[in-house]
Predict the 3D structure of the following.
Amino acid sequence: MAYALIVSLKQTLEPLVDSVGSRIQIPNPELKIIYDDLCYLKSFFDKLNSLEDSNSVEELDKQIKDVLERSQDLIEFHLSDLVHSGSGSSISGFSRELVEVKEKVGSLVNMSKAKEDYLTQPQPSPPSLGWNSKIVGLTDVDVKSRNHFGRNKEIVGLEEEKMTLKQRLLRESNDLAVFSIVGMGGIGKTTLAKEVYLDPLIKDHFDTFLFVEIDFEYDFQALLLRLVGQLLYVENEEMSDYELGVTLYKYLFRRRYLIVLDDVWSIEAWDRLRPFFPNNKVGSAIILTTRLYNLARYVCPQENILQMRLLNEEKSWELLCKMAFPDIEQCPLELEEMGMRIVKTLGGLPLAIVTIGKLLSVSQRTAENWRAVAQNMTSPIRESTIPTFLNLSYTQLPQCLKACFLYLGIFPPNYNIPASQLIKLWIAEGFIEPAADKSLEQKAEEYLEDLVSRSLVIVQEVNSIGRIKTCRIHQLLRDLCVNEAQQQKLFHVNEGTTSSRNQRRLGIHSDVVPGVLDSVSRLLRSLVFICPYHQQAIQRFRWLRVFHALSIRYCKFPDEVLKLVRLRYLAITYDGEELPSSISRLWNLEVLIIHKSQSIKSSVLLPLEIWKLHKLRHLQCMGFDLPDPSMEDATDFLFFGKLLTLSGVSARSCINGVLARMPNLIKLGIWLEPTTTEYAIETFCFDAIFTHLRRLESFKCTPMNRSEAAFSLTGFPPLCLRKLSLSGCGFVWGEHMPIIAQLPFLQVLKLRWHAFCGHEWESYEGGLMHLKVLVLEDLDIKQLMVAGYVFPTLEQLIFRRCYNLEEIPPEFGDIPTLQLIEVDDCSMSLIESAKRIQEEQQEEYGNYDLQVRICSSSHGQVKKFTNSNIARHVDFPTISTT
């Protein structure tokens, strides 16, 4: 875990090395030398995944981590001391100790360079595999009769997937087809591939069969020999890789073959093998199993990717019973309650269910014994092969992703993690290395998507344009994260039972933690509370970087927080009326989130000193407004040049003197409150927004009460706007919608309660050309009319509680990109029109993927209408309604 420390310490030193504009000036040449050495160490670890025997650096990793932890403590101690004391003696003492740090880091660099030289030098060739003599072919009958593994007597939860894959393999097509089965370790990819491979219909359809597992660190010649060896006797040790590949190609050329490449880890392995699989135009096929979605997408088209699903509770119970009771048909009644508890703990992962089921099958069938298993699932799982099986996904991660992945364990089990929160925490922890062409947030989002593509993270909810909104990890992967993180001293999770001494980061999930913080090291860097609301007192942790405590309610702003000068991330629930001006002491703050547990009656101005937090990237202050610096003297330094998102403020913050000082803002969310001069303020609000925020991509306004046509669209629109969500604006369809329709890049338009008033909306050709999502909710519209070719790229059309709307115009059936129509609590005539459009899409465009969802809040039901002839295997994440 040295990599995360290297990146974090680099970020600490960067403003000191480039001291222009830095609050702390330390003219010391040692800093630049240390910084350059850290840059080398980072590049060394970046190369590790491409080097042979990269696991041999574990001891070096530990040495680097130990040295850098002490160095980071030393540097941050002096930085905090300099801020508090400002004494020159502190600087001189700091300079002396920097010499020692430089020498220790320099020694690490020398060790790393020696290790790199060793790993990059040519390695001796492996010994001959000793295959003798000439090639002798087997008959086709011999090949077809070979059985490399036993077949499962019964499979559970894979019936639909097996049937679909069989249908695709038995298709009427001559071209070579490639299919990918994707999912996390232990989810049943290999089981499914074997079931299809050994199916009698498949055996009758194909002539030649090959099944081979490809390890992460595979030997290509050995791999080719294993493939050829299933077809021919190979006894010539002089054959090169190319000759072996040509032999395989020639044998397969005139045959209809089925090849299963199991557990593929790299695109390189596929690229090296692919030329030896001929497209012989007789309907051959290749099935590839992998944990990597990006690899699957590389080798085959999207429609040939089968995304494996975790078993639901019913199928999990069925599988557990089959494994635990092979000799009887059903579970004894007295064991059902404990059995269901066990099933819920295993989270639908087939390998884990099979493992525990086998354990239960040889144990006493008593309620007491099953209760003991249910209460201590950790022990039997750790003693099985499951940890090793899952750990492979972690050990093969690039260095830059390891700390990010482990950090997911700081959240409670089965917790839906907000992606935006996770990304902010990664950045504040120093896990994300800056890039010249991307923001830290963009890079962190790529990291999250990478973890998803590696089947390590499950997407729970996506936003309206398909970006991850919430995610989670499987319980067994979370256990891996927590155990590995504690070994690496990355973080510790205190759920009310275990010690938390000498930890750098602490996650608290229990609201019953009396005195837990009394034993925590003063070196603590992060404190993350994710638990029920409670009144937990905290002591002062001088070097804290992250304080996430939305579950702690403060009536008075905590004085101890104001002393945390290294703080980068602050999230609390604060019901006080004012924020202290001393908030400006937190000059390293990048994220400031303030929630309220009580309803907001009116907003309060933040102190003018808030503008001194020049590093702020995200500001969410519910019930507060930003003061106008232009009304004060000496305002040159009052500027939010790095601010990207602003939310929770009212329209009073959206004036020229405020918004002109945040030119890089990309996301703005405001709420509208009743005032005596409501019309003037809110009109001015829109003027300022559209004048100054030229990089704005997302804008949302939410009303406190109904506003009657309170807005003007003067200066509208910002050219970059991609998402627009309006409520309570009282716009007129014919007057204001033509202006919005000219937004050149708008992809999402959400019109909620009283955003527009009037019974008719007539949309004309040429507007909203790039719109992908249209939401109409709680509107009094009766008729939606279209003229010409409208919404040519629309993918999602959503109606909620538009009780008066009669139908969806039939012209929507001419949109070939349409994927979803959702109708929630609307008229029967609107529902029927949605079904007609679905039928038209199927008939005219062959679009059998269009879903129609009919939702009824009164009955709590959701009905989905999809084409019954095509099975769907991707569990699409829920689309956010916010």
Remarks:
- Residues 88-120 form the longest helix (33 residues).
- Residues 158 and 192 are 7 Å apart (CA to CA).
- The mean pLDDT is 83.
